[in-house]
Amino acid sequence: MGKLMRATSLDTSFEAELRGLILLFLLGDAADADYLGALDTITVNAHTFGVGAESLNGTHRLASAELHTRTVLMTQALQHLAIQGFVTLQPDRSPAAFTITAEGESVVNHFRSRYAGQLFDTALETIERVGDLSTSELAQIIRSATPEGETR
User: Fold this and answer.
1) CA 110 to CA 43: how far, in whole Å?
2) DSSP-assigned letter for residue 40
3) pLDDT digit of tens for each residue in the chain (152 aa)?
């Protein structure tokens, strides 16, 4: 049995900012909050959704219910990142999409913690496996998965 979900103060819009920067860095293309929220949900719960070797915050029964909350957090994160100059809005895209700036890339390149390394590796693995899917296809993975211990 996997680790239990850890309660942390990092599951906030601040942590979403860090994950959003890493995801945009690895994607190398513009993405909107809905796409990043879905990709973030799968990344954090990679093992739970059968995409990676482990889930970053441990396994838990309600991973599939996180999509809405993570999308809201990612929307807030992208707003904060744009104000700080770490991402930029792509005005020609609908829905509103963001790309990482050179300053944002510099921030990502300076992440040195063990957690940042695990997140980077897990995000890279997730993007390699599902990064070519649409937002609705990512959401379908989340909605259709029945993680260990969860019943439908």
Assistant:
1) 21
2) H
3) 333 334 444 467 788 999 999 999 999 999 999 999 999 999 988 888 888 888 887 665 566 678 888 899 999 999 999 999 999 999 888 888 999 999 999 999 999 889 889 999 999 999 999 999 999 999 999 888 755 544 44
Q: Quote the CA–CA distance of 1 and 148 in Å, as a whole number.
A: 9
Burial zone of 104 (CB within 10 Å; 0-12 exposed, 13-18 middle, 19+ buried): buried
The residues, ordered by sequence, that sit 6+ positions from 23 with a Cβ below 8 Å of its Cβ are 31, 36, 39, 40, 43, 123, 127
Cis peptide bond N-terminal to 147, omega within 30 = no
Closest CA to 25 of 13, 39, 42: 39
pTM over 0.70: yes
Strand, helix or coil for residue 25: helix
**Which residue in the block uniquely carries the two structure tokens 């293309």?**
29
11 contacts: CB under 8 Å, gap ≥ 6: 57
